[in-house]
């Protein structure tokens, strides 16, 4: 295994409780029947909650990416990143495709995770929509303040209608970008394929059980519901969670995402350059990555996912191709417990 070249990554699809719609497989150019899982964990050093090693990416030589990074962190992540964050990539990227609406759930923030789960990361995430059926929606944040007892009653009785009525529905289309702060309740509607950037954990509190069992992170719901943001979000405040999206060249997420992760829409026609550690998801076209790394330029097409180690050096995206360049936070980025919006 060479660390001084970009690495094409194949699918990494840990089993999930909900069905995929085949969009992820078709995006990758795979047989949808042979790759039915709804999630593809790209360059993952994160295991599924309670199911390790499921979820960890495995490289061509059989080494997990987690072990490879821990063995040579500066080669993968760069000295500035390691000085700031250690051998932790501070990033997980996924492809997510559901044949049905996902359950209403939320994720703990960093302070809750540190206090109750012994982890430095919560799970703030962001969605970049690649495909969406007409009328597709996501659901995000409460429209009114919800009392703790009221929320507990909804969860215990599984009153899903009340949960959904209390959430803001947001229409999405290809190109939409949505930041999802840790703590806010949310759900992704059916018929959507998206790239998800997130903190590298698998922590979820399932307000709606659906196909899932448990969902309280082993804490009991009396404790787990303490991570839920029950505040009322106005439409004006909610608007700050919507980024420029994939309709423009450059940064696609709102600035509040910067302490957690970064994403840019790159164009081969602009000969965009990249450098440092990150994950490139090719969303359209055909092209190549060229640089001073050994060997020929790396050919790219829609659906390719590429791990770019720091040691591979700067490189250029060329051709009639578009990609999403996903990166961890900058080493000097502020580190709030949750996005301030």
Question: How would you sum up this structure, described in words?
Answer:
This protein is of the alpha+beta class and 341 residues long. The protein folds into 2 domains: 11-257, Jelly Rolls (Sandwich); 262-327, Jelly Rolls (Sandwich). Helices cover 17% and strands 28% of the residues. It is built from 9 helices and 18 strands. It has helices at 23-28, 65-71, 73-77, 79-85, 110-116, 148-157, 160-166, 221-224, 235-239; strands spanning 7-8, 39-42, 92-98, 105-106, 125-132, 137-142, 167-171, 177-180, 186-188, 192-198, 205-206, 250-251, 262-267, 273-274, 278-291, 298-301, 305-308, 315-327. The strands form 4 sheets. Strands 1, 12, 13, 14, 15, 16, 17 and 18 form an 8-stranded antiparallel sheet that branches. Strands 2-3-10-5-8 form a 5-stranded antiparallel sheet, with no helix packed on it. A 3-stranded antiparallel sheet has the order 7-6-9. The longest helix is centred in the middle third of the chain and has 10 residues, at 148-157. It is globular, with a radius of gyration of 19 Å. The mean pLDDT is 95.
């Amino acid at each position: 295994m060479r660390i001084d070249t970009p690495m094409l990554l194949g699918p990494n699809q840990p089993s999930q409780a909900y069905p995929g719609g085949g969009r992820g497989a078709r995006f990758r150019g795979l047989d949808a029947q042979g790759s039915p899982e709804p999630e593809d964990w790209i360059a993952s050093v994160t295991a599924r909650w309670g199911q390790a090693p499921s979820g960890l990416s495995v490289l061509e030589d059989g080494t997990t990416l987690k072990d490879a990074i821990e063995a040579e962190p500066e080669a993968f992540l760069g000295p500035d990143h390691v000085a700031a964050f250690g051998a932790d990539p501070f990033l997980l990227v996924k492809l997510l495709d559901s044949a049905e609406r996902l359950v209403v759930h939320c994720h703990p923030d960093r302070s809750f995770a540190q206090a109750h789960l012994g982890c430095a990361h919560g799970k703030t995430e962001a969605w970049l929509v690649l495909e969406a059926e007409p009328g597709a929606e996501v659901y995000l944040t409460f429209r009114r303040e919800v009392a703790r007892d009221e929320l507990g009653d909804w969860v215990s009785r599984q009153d899903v209608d009340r949960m959904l009525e209390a959430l803001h529905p947001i229409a999405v289309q290809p190109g939409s970008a949505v930041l999802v702060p840790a703590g806010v309740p949310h759900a992704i509607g059916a018929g959507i394929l998206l790239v998800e950037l997130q903190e590298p954990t698998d922590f979820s509190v399932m307000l709606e059980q659906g196909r899932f069992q448990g969902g309280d992170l082993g804490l009991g719901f009396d404790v787990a519901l303490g991570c839920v943001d029950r505040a009322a979000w106005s439409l004006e405040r909610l608007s700050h969670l919507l980024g420029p999206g994939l309709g423009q060249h450059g940064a696609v997420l709102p600035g509040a995402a910067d302490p957690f992760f970064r994403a840019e829409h790159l164009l081969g026609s602009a000969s965009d350059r990249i450098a440092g550690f990150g994950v490139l998801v090719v969303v359209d076209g055909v092209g190549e990555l060229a640089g001073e790394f050994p060997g020929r330029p790396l050919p790219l097409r829609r659906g390719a996912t590429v791990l770019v180690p720091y040691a591979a050096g700067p490189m250029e995206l060329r051709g009639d191709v578009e990609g999403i360049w996903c990166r961890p936070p900058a080493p000097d980025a502020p580190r709030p417990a949750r996005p301030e919006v």
